[in-house]
């Protein structure tokens, strides 16, 4: 196992629109991030992953890019970006940018040209197909509802958009497209950025035949994902990108990859294959999914969650490297999802942080996770901004006739705006995020959950995360130790060891609001020192590890003696 700085780092994701507004227009911006760099340095993170800051018409909040080489007006200017990069580097914080190259905005000049006529030089930059009997070329469903195909009057055919119709897919089969992308990547890397998080990058190679997808009962559209996820040329493209661009810089890369399996994960991340450093898989994010996909409200089982996460730990033990995350800008808040956002909010947030950070891989923190920020339940659909939620709501209510209250409930639990409500800095109006009208309402709980409060409380989730991050720098076992799952069948306890040479760490996490006992026969003769704990009542005697009593939502990490 080779040692690398990105294996020893903790990444913090910033969703700029919701992070900090410096000029009172209600939208977060680059100067706002600069103002908070000391806060991030205090937390101790090593790398910032910046969600897109490029010029965009904001159909999908910047994941629809109009110009890869300029900064979105609302966020500031390229000068602001340069200051941000320099100021972050001054604090030993690296910056990883979002690379969104499965698609562009339909307002990108390439697409404006491409759609204008069949003989335009940019025509083959995108994926154009003829319809069949007045219908779109395939039955595929877009990730944001409706068909993946949009008809274009000027040329009488359809273009592919796996996401919204304002996000046309680029044609990676075209050599010119690939070299444009590589040039753009070099342009940013030459500025001194430290890597890329690559948006749905395992979607860039499409199956050449464009077959119809399977249609589930009761559904109008088919599932095209087998024909665009991990497609036939994906490894060739990533290998080429590595050779031509990435290998010339000391950077980190993480590919966002819905539908990726551990076998594929190894192919993407094994050192000798020269593709990427890590992938984001989504298996654990699907643990509470069901018939309605992510919108299902079926609950989840700890045994399923453990099975998924430990499978990835074992599979990538020898080859490749894991990324570890509970949250991002597309997911509900973890304390509401797998913890308890009521009485045990702080305690369960710390437990979840421990469970994640003690596994093997690079941990990612999403803004506000370090405060234990929660989901929000807005009363009206009009308070939501995310196109995924709004499209789903319209489809379910207007086409399928579902009860609007029930659809709203799904959005309360699963909608992406849970992650996107403004960062809660203080108990001041709008959580101190803006002096103006925020683009998305602030979660009303900002009066009690905010950074100012967390910084002043030694026992806060913030201070606990700070300690978790610090420990990674002091203890190599946390970074490089081998993972082994214990108590596989327990529905209450997530338990595992990490072993590195003579040192073994034992991590015990209670996922329930009841006290529980961890029976660990194999450690009957062993005792341990506490490395970190969120326990309220101190253990007076040295703990014998054969039988360990755990408080509700307790997480304790022992160093075995
Ligand atoms: C994944 C991103 O994380 C999400 O926010 C976005 O909507 C889609 N990719 C499309 O770019």
Give the ligands present: 1-deoxynojirimycin
The class by helix and strand makeup works out as alpha/beta
Shape assignment: globular
Q: Give the N-to-C terminal Cα separation.
A: 26 Å
What is the second-level CATH architecture of the largest domain? Alpha-Beta Barrel
| Sheet with most strands | 8 strands, parallel
Number of helices: 16
**Within the CATH hierarchy, at the fold level, what is the topology of the largest domain?**
TIM Barrel
Unreliable stretches (pLDDT < 50, length at least 5) are none
Strand content: 15-25%
Mean of residue pLDDT values: 97
CATH superfamily descriptor of the largest domain: Glycosidases
CATH domain class of the largest domain: Alpha Beta
Q: Taking strands numbered 1, 2, ... along the chain, how are they ordered across the largest sheet?
A: 11-10-9-5-2-1-13-12
Indicate the percent of residues in helices. 25-40%
How many E strands?
A: 21
Tell me about this structure.
- One of its GO terms (cellular component) is cytoplasm.
- It catalyses: Hydrolysis of (1->6)-alpha-D-glucosidic linkages in some oligosaccharides produced from starch and glycogen by alpha-amylase, and in isomaltose.
- It is found in: Cytoplasm.
- Its main location: cytoplasm.
- Belongs to the glycosyl hydrolase 13 family.
- The protein has an eight-stranded parallel beta sheet with strand order 11-10-9-5-2-1-13-12, with helices on one face. It has a six-stranded antiparallel beta sheet with strand order 14-15-16-21-18-19. The chain has a three-stranded antiparallel beta sheet with strand order 6-8-7, with no helix packed on it.
- It is globular, with a radius of gyration of 24 Å.
- A hairpin with a 6-residue loop joins strand 14 (482-486) and strand 15 (493-500).
- The chain folds into three domains: 11-104 and 175-468, Glycosidases (TIM Barrel, Alpha-Beta Barrel); 109-160, Oligo-1,6-glucosidase, domain 2, CATH 3.90.400; 479-560, Golgi alpha-mannosidase II (Immunoglobulin-like).
- The protein is of the alpha/beta class.
- The chain has helices spanning 30-35, 37-43, 78-90, 109-114, 175-191, 234-244, 262-269, 302-315, 334-337, 345-357, 387-399, 404-414, 417-420, 451-456, 461-474, 476-480, and strands spanning 11-14, 47-50, 54-55, 67-71, 94-99, 128-129, 149-152, 157-160, 195-198, 252-256, 278-280, 323-324, 362-366, 482-486, 493-500, 503-510, 516-519, 527-533, 543-544, 547-550, 555-560.
- The mean pLDDT is 97.
- Helix 10 (345-357) runs parallel beside helix 15.
- It is built from 16 helices and 21 strands.
- The protein binds 1-deoxynojirimycin.
- Residues 60, 63, 100, 163, 199-200, 256, 329-330 line the site of 1-deoxynojirimycin.
- 1-deoxynojirimycin (NOJ) is lined by residues 60, 63, 100, 163, 199-200, 256, 329-330.
